Amino acid sequence: AAQMYYDDAADLAIIQGKKVAVIGYGSQGHAHALSLRDSGVDVRIGLAEGSKSRAKVEEEGLRVLTPAEATAEADVIMILVPDHIQRDLYTAEIAPNLEAGNALFFAHGFSVRYGFVKAPEGVDVAMVAPKGPGHLVRRQFEAGRGVPCLVAVEEDASGQAWDLALSWAKGIGGTRAGAIRTTFTEETETDLFGEQTVLCGGMEELVKGGFETLVEAGYQPEIAYFECLHEVKLIVDLMYEGGLSKMNWSISDNAEYGGYTRGPRLITDQTRQEMRKILGEIQDGSYAKELMEEFDAGKPTFTKRREAEQNEQIETVGAELRPLMSWLKA
Ligand code: NDP
Ligand code: MG
Ligand code: MG
Predict the structure, then answer these.
(1) Mean pLDDT, to the nearest integer, of 179-183?
(2) Cα–Cα distance list, 282 to 116, 130, 159, 285, 291 (Å)
(3) Is the CB of 193 under 6 A from ligand 1?
(4) What is the mean pLDDT of the chain?
(5) Cα of 189 to ligand 1 centre, how many Å?
(6) Does 28 sit in the ligand 1 pocket, CB within 6 Å?
(7) Is 108 an active-site residue?
(8) What residue's CA is closest to ligand 1, atom 8?
(9) For 89-112, how does the pLDDT look when each residue is reduced to its tens digit (9 = 90+)?
(10) What is the 205 CA–ligand 1 centroid distance (Å)?
């Protein structure tokens, strides 16, 4: 079984004795920074001079410096800017200001796993990765609870990197819920695989395939939207609460039988074969290389796909239907 750590395995005093820099103040950045501050930690934020996030930081009364200045001041530096930005920001502003005895922290292993960030000798490299979006992480902390998180140590130069990582996890409420021990490699590869095949890539194509099949066969797009997109949430909520068995217990026997007999005709050996291929591209680094090249080139494919999606019928129909659901506030 996975190794778990709770509050009693973590000493908050360790992180309270460090100068902390949080680089970036977006989804994860604001959650880590504010909860650490509330846990009695000395936190400063690193943001570019013209950054849009600066005003929000100042509203909270936190100090904001450039990423270079924040790194130079701090003992523990957590990088919470988007993954594809980390390589260049690290090279330009963070690496020159690191010294032996510092610790470099991440909330996702991507940059370290694929060698885009290489810490110098004598620097600890660790991860505290909440398994939820930053706004949930912050809200749970404020409510006296926490979001489970993954912890990993890639470089333990000080011999104290695990205690430091667990102390950070405690400071953001993670060990209230439970911290699970993993490695940078496992976290990165499973995270990418999950989003590509199931959560984002797989789900989106499944929803679109169902919607388009019904519309092509002459059914009303509004009905197809409800059936193939809107109701996904009802099913996912049941799985989230009680696994596949709660979902199958809650739906009708008719739906359950239809699912058991038709689902395997869609997700076939061929689909699983493709999943293995996608996993291979994650493991051998070719996906990471492709992503960085795409962003280096000004993200042509990304932008084209994002624009095309806005014009798809499922999107235009959905935009007309969602105002009917008063509980869905923008
Ligand atoms: P965000 O996209 O929310 O980060 C945005 C922040 O980064 C803003 O403060 C932005 O500043 C700043 N930023 C963007 N570009 C630069 C730059 N070139 N130089 C300096 N600052 C910059 O990131 P997330 O919080 O989503 O992700 C951060 C890390 O956390 C990633 O490693 C991600 O994989 C991981 N993670 C994210 C989760 C999530 O739910 N979002 C969940 C678990 C892990 P500005 O205001 O100027 O744009
Ligand atoms: Mg991810
Ligand atoms: Mg139905």
Answers:
(1) 98
(2) 15, 21, 30, 5, 11
(3) no
(4) 97
(5) 19
(6) yes
(7) yes
(8) 26
(9) 999 999 999 999 999 999 999 999
(10) 26
Pick the closest to residue 94 from 122, 115, 121, 74 (CA basis).
74
Ligand 1 atom with the shortest distance to the CA of 25: 9
Beta bridge partners of 45: 22, 64
Q: How close is the Cα of 23 to the center of ligand 1, in Å?
A: 9
Residue-range domains of the chain with CATH:
4-182 (3.40.50.720), 191-324 (no CATH)
> What pLDDT, on a 0 to 100 scale, did the predictor assign at position 329?
74
| Residue nearest (by alpha carbon) to ligand 1 atom 26 | 27
High-pLDDT (> 90) share of the chain, %: 98
User: What SS3 class is residue 2?
Assistant: coil
What's the one-letter identity of residue 248? N
- Closest residue (by CA) to atom 36 of ligand 1? 107
Q: Tell me: pLDDT of 330 over 70.
A: no
Tell me what pLDDT residue 17 has.
98
